[in-house]
């Protein structure tokens, strides 16, 4: 039964990452990760840009929005089991499953599809380990 609940939880995180409008997704990601980490993943230096994305005053590029959607999927998945501070630490810390690269850095700098898949796999392993 626990495995089914975990799958459903992962499914909700995925569905939200695909279905949420851009601004709502950015607000949700900002609520989980904080504005500085979202700005980092989104490759912007000013946190003001994140607020503008969240408020619909400005649109990130399609590539940045895709990176943010992948980040939201992972963050929402982790947030179902852990606190914001744990999720934030997980995104920023060295990860042995990612060759000690922090997940946020991998999502920001990596080849998008490969990085997203690797980070999601690492997040699933983290949640499975309890």
TrEMBL record:
<protein>
    <recommendedName>
        <fullName>Antitoxin Xre/MbcA/ParS-like toxin-binding domain-containing protein</fullName>
    </recommendedName>
</protein>
């Amino acid at each position: 039964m626990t495995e089914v609940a975990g799958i459903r939880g992962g499914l909700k995180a995925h569905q939200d990452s695909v279905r949420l409008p851009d601004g709502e997704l950015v607000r949700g990601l900002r609520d989980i990760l904080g504005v500085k980490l979202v700005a980092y993943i989104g490759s912007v230096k000013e946190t003001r840009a994140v607020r503008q994305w969240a408020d619909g005053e400005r649109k990130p590029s399609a590539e940045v929005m895709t990176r943010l959607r992948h980040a939201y999927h992972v963050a929402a998945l982790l947030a179902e089991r852990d606190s914001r501070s744990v999720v934030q630490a997980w995104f920023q810390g060295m990860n042995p499953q990612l060759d000690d690269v922090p997940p946020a850095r991998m999502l920001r700098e990596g080849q998008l599809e490969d990085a997203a898949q690797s980070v999601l796999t690492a997040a699933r392993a983290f949640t499975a380990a309890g």
